[in-house]
Amino acid sequence: MKVSDKLRQAEDSKQPYFSFEYFPPKTEQGLANLYDRIERMARLGPVFVAVTWGAGGATAQRTLELCSACQGVFGVETVMHLTCTNMDIAQVDAALEGAKAAGIQNILALRGDPPRDAEYWTACEGGFSHAVDLVRYIREKYGSYFCVGVAGYPEGHIESTDADQDFEYFVAKVEAGADFVVSQLAYDANVFIQWEKKVRARGITVPVVAGVLPVQSYQSFRRLVFLTKVAVPEALRERLEEAKANDQAVKDLGVEHAVAMVRQLQAAGVRGVHLTTLNLENSVQRVLEALGMGEAAMKSTGRALAGQAVTGQAMTSTAERRVWDDFPNGRWGDARSPAFGSADAYGAMLKFDAQGAARVWGRPCTLDDISSLFARYVTGEIASLPWSDEPLRAETERIGAELARVNRLGFWTLASQPALDGVASTDATHGWGPRGGYVYQKAFVECFVAGAKFGSFLSRLQSSASRVTYYAANRQGDFLTNAHAGEGTALTWGVFPGRAVVQPTLIDKISFLAWRAEAFQTWREWAAMFAQASQEACFLRETADECWLVNVVDNDYKQADAIWELFQ
């Protein structure tokens, strides 16, 4: 059934309705666990679910596989995202024919970000410069078979400098044959309400669903705002700043704000909301329960378990399956979680254009240039790197001097944390989780090491193998570790009143290798910002081919500074 028909039926019922959005997980275990999650969430009664599409078709196979399961196995009307960026007509047709074969009639037509190995956004063969071109093509070739949706931007597209012109682009997409609209997320209900009035005043009558993303963690929220420039009400921003040291409090605030926002939308006559789940379940279900929406949410079970993480053991209840991965910490969450890698699921890594990249990161031609760049970042002289789009967190201040030293020596750090031994969960810098607990963490450093330095560094790691766990890989796929096969290494854990030990962050072979591919690809992205034969581009490609990515965990968290002895 076409989503536009279901949306009109929902509107005619005069009752509130909702839909969900998921992204294709990075790991096979994550995909398997997402199927389990979607099966439960389908019982809540979404009008449809949507699955994102990786830039340039990067997730094409997994997106189609996930869509097919949602449509055919779980029986939920499914919308497949489809972008035209850097995809030729054959790729677009293959995606559409695949959707058709799977019984999927609903497509969200997007321009999308460039794929990670592309220098710039480029139109595909046949003139797919914008989403409107994709809408026209689908209509011209497939007639009315597909129900086509488009994105709406209540605050304007992030690349737009002219709000009026941006709105005209939106109108053109609808007039080209769109059947429904899903809006970009907003944190201020009034922003959407005023924009929808403008849409209706223009004579657009297709269903419009408001995008809502409950805040899941302080860091993911901060990154989202940084990348999208979405407006945030000052009251919400201030409350999140106050709660940022308490992960459960942040989630609770995210649920509270989403509930208040949806109620405000409903009071203004907006019945439909599109909930971006980030492949997590608990917050979304709590929002629906508070709103009295969703059959299963109205009879939610196990709320006392909210915020617990259950890892490394059997999950015996629905409540446990809802919350076991509620506190993933970026890519350091459990690779079995459907939400693993959520920080990279929406949008490309590099947000600068070539000129901006050269202005901030310079024109590196030597290893010393790279060392200097990384040192400037860890000392706060510059606010980003190709691998990190925001400044270092406050917790790194206690190891700042060592980070500066090792980067100048040629160990180019991508991630790090100090050892902690029973810090209060309410600590403003290092605390997380519910109040009344204590948090612990092992010192770790992840860095690139130039090929000429790697051999001696590996020898030091091997001589410290009784205390240190390491993972190392290069771009060619060579992999070295002293970790036991199939086992992960906990990086962070917490002990809280009345709860099992919580392990929200860990490293294992699966998660390390998933990140390895992206980490090395970023070298290529950076190189592509220079002319292909330039000295800078050649140097960056050569460096990527020769260096190693190394992750080092010091398991003796009682010896806070011992890890730095390895970096000489």
Structural topology:
Layout: H1 3-12, E1 17-22, H2 28-42, E2 49-51, H3 60-73, E3 78-83, H4 89-101, E4 106-110, H5 131-142, E5 147-152, H6 163-175, E6 180-183, H7 189-201, E7 208-212, H8 218-228, H9 234-243, H10 247-267, E8 272-276, H11 282-291, H12 318-323, H13 354-361, H14 367-378, H15 400-408, E9 411-417, E10 420-424, E11 438-441, E12 443-449, H16 451-463, E13 468-474, E14 479-481, E15 489-495, E16 502-507, H17 509-527, H18 535-546, E17 548-554
Parallel strand pairs: 1-2, 1-8, 2-3, 3-4, 4-5, 5-6, 6-7, 7-8
Antiparallel strand pairs: 9-12, 10-11, 11-15, 12-17, 13-14, 13-17, 15-16
Helix pairs in contact: 5-6, 7-10, 9-10, 10-11, 14-15, 17-18
Write out key terms for the chains shown:
568 residues, 8-stranded parallel beta barrel, 18 helices, 39% helix, 5-stranded antiparallel beta sheet, alpha/beta
Description of the structure:
The protein has 18 helices and 17 strands. Residues 115-121, 301-317 and 345-349 have low confidence and may be disordered. It starts with a helix and ends in a 14-residue tail after the last strand. With 568 residues, the chain is an alpha/beta fold.
Question: In which range does the helix fraction lie?
Answer: 25-40%
The strand count comes to: 17
Spatial shape: globular
Query: Please, what is the oligomeric state?
Result: single chain
Give Rg in angstroms: 24 Å
Give the distance, in angstroms, between the N- and C-terminal Cα atoms: 63 Å
- The average pLDDT score comes to 86
Sequence of strands across the biggest β-sheet: 1-2-3-4-5-6-7-8
- Strand portion: 15-25%
State the secondary-structure class.
Answer: alpha/beta
Low-confidence stretches: 115-121, 301-317, 345-349
Number of DSSP helical runs: 18
